[in-house]
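RECORD TYPE: protein structure
NAME: TonB-dependent receptor
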Amino acid sequence: MNTTLSLLTRNVRGVLAASAAFSVMATAPVYAQEAEESAKAEDFEQIAVVGSRAAPRSVADSAVPIDIISDEEFKQQGATDMVSMMQTVVPSFNVNDQPINDASTLVRPANLRGMASDHTLVLVNGKRRHRSAVITFLGGGLSDGAQGPDISVIPAAALKQVEVLRDGAAAQYGSDAIAGVINFVLSDASEGGTFEARYGSYYEGDGDMIQLSGNVGLPLSENGFLNLSAEYRTADDTSRSVQRDDAAALVAAGNTFVADPAQIWGSPEIKHDIKLFANAGIELSATSEAYMFGNFAEREVEGGFYFRNPHNRGGVNDGGTNADGEQLLLVGDLTGDMSGNCPTDIVVGDNVLTNPRYISEVANNPDCFAFNEILPGGFTPRFGGTVTDMSLVFGTKGELDNDITYDVSLNLGQNEVDFAISNTINPSLGPDTPTSFSPGRYTQSEQTLDIDFTKPFDVGLYEPLFVATGFQYRNESYESVAGDTASYEIGPLATQGFGIGSNGFPGLAANSQGRVSRNNIALYIDAEAYITESFMLAGALRYEDFSDFGDTTKGKIAFRWQALENIAFRGAFSTGFKAPTLGQSNVRNVTTAFGTGGQLIDRATLPPTDPVSQLKGGEQLTPEESESITFGIVADFENGLFITADYYNIELTDRISTASGIALTEDDIAALIAQGINDASSFQEISFFTNDFDTTTEGVDVVANYSMEMMGGETKFSLAYNWTSTEVDRASDNISAERIRMLEDNLPAVRYSATANHTNGDWRFLARLNYYGSIFEDHLDSALPIDKVGSEFTVDLEVAYNFTEEFTVTVGAKNAFDEYPDENTQYAGIAGSLYPTTSPIGINGGFYYLRGVYSF
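PREDICTED:
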């Protein structure tokens, strides 16, 4: 069987078959033309060794940079979720904590090569992975509005390896592959297995984590396999907060109902996180096989939110100001005919609870009501939800006559997020409000049909010309389901200035729910050949037609030149695109954001084609377009030293993001109400998705590996280095200056990790030095700029001992020396965040863990 379309081949009961289905553009030049079986075996060993621990992580013979990360590399670190694991082992992969950041709390956005989280295409066993239903409305600037796949639903126990193609590949795989492609290859073992138990906690004594996982391989008849994986995890929340200045002032004035701290900044609580994966394959004949794989995952997360001050929270306590500029209390009249004669001029002072007028005219008056009666210390909502993810892929592949290989598959995927908010109110309902709400549910569904063929042609070159061609049909939908009635209900106090909907995350109203869908077809052709013994040339062309915005054609060309015995050069030029997602084009959402000067505002995200959005400059979204250049060198020396260095330059035009918050006028609010958006009176700002800026991102990735015998054992050294720089070339007035700086400087310009892994008998010792360059932060997306979050070093340490051949115990520490980012001294008192919230090293400090693994 032709193996040239895969990064890695696998042996299923003696049958050589492609596992990753990567394009010829990212392939080691191994040829199976009319070869003897022994030659095939040699090629199999040559390719498979890339995924072993003894070999370099980057594929040396590829025309573009590729990392191969084995399952062992994932296990040898303290992180437990897939997003954090990827950051440790891939040089240009970045992710930061999202302590209070709306939907980002549920699905953290990750960035490859300085691009947004939905600029990287994710595959599982070579098949496109569906998107998450979560749109990261507040994504730390760079990923604002991104809607990418949720890779955290993939358990490490299910993996054989991960392949990271760090190059634009939209011409091969379609939309999203602007920054690159990540392919998760599932374990295909037909026997044996592992069981792992892990416990960890932060040095501060919080964030306790328990994880149980396992994998088992079973035979499926005599000619197949069934591989099953499961993971269960829980984690407590953390707090790295200080008391807010306004909360401290309330306490000093005698309000004993205010919590300390009033607002929690830290990792959210993971109430449960269940992940199940299955991978199966069976021979149909000597030249064909059937395969099937799929998953189910469910994760419930709850995190902190912003403190609602009992004196001035808009729509809850804020009654405006008097002529002297003094804060007044919002008081509601509970009588049906407004006959309560409730006061509207009570000055809150330092502590309204001790104001005699409040006590006599409100607290002890059944006709009048203020939320201070039931929430005297204000309140801090808890926000989160449940993410449910499932997929099923099945197909067949094999070899026909004349060396033609085929792969036909059907891919079904769905991701659903059911939001939840508690410890909050619907102010318009007054004293009858519930305190817990289900604000709505969003579902992303995708169905994909792939038909792929490959064939070598003898055209008189040094090696045959390998051609791959195929067809893809994809249908996707995005559905929004209304929240429970109380989460969006317009209560009797709405006309008196009280806010509408669950405060912090108002529910999606019934008249705003709905389902939108689209489909697209794609045709592609790839070709690759060694023109001479040392020079390989490859090209790709892809045409796609979307039902909602039209068609596009993209291309790519790549080369590899073995200039010297140990030195090779490689490079590529490609054009790419990312289609606007259905969620970005159609979603309606309201979230609480931190406004300039410290106030909280309710910001509504509307479709860009909504009349109010169009008044503010909104237009129908168009695809993002990219041009990408990669050029690199590969050095593979006889002493075992292996180095790759690759420069990349990505010009991206018409980038899609959410506009910075735009203030609403009274006329705007009236127009929204006329559309049936009756809670618009609660909105202070709107936002919408827009193609409003262009960027140029360039950088360098360096990967180096070296092994040597020392101290009676073997030590493997590795270095992963990345430099990335982004410049905003064009931006409209809808993108603020702070957003531009976040796009350019919120990720570290330089990041690297150097690892030494020493094995000696039954002992293994690992040390990893991590460096993160300085960043800029628009603190809380509120135009409170932290000009520089300083660079940091962290160290990871791990010691493992094999008690028997089957049982291993590991003790380790991530950020072993308990490093924290520079304290946020300038703005800590505004919202209580002790550290810059987007610091690349996180805000939680050191984390220790104990792991036991039993293999059988």
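COMMENT: The first strand starts at residue 9 and ends at 12.
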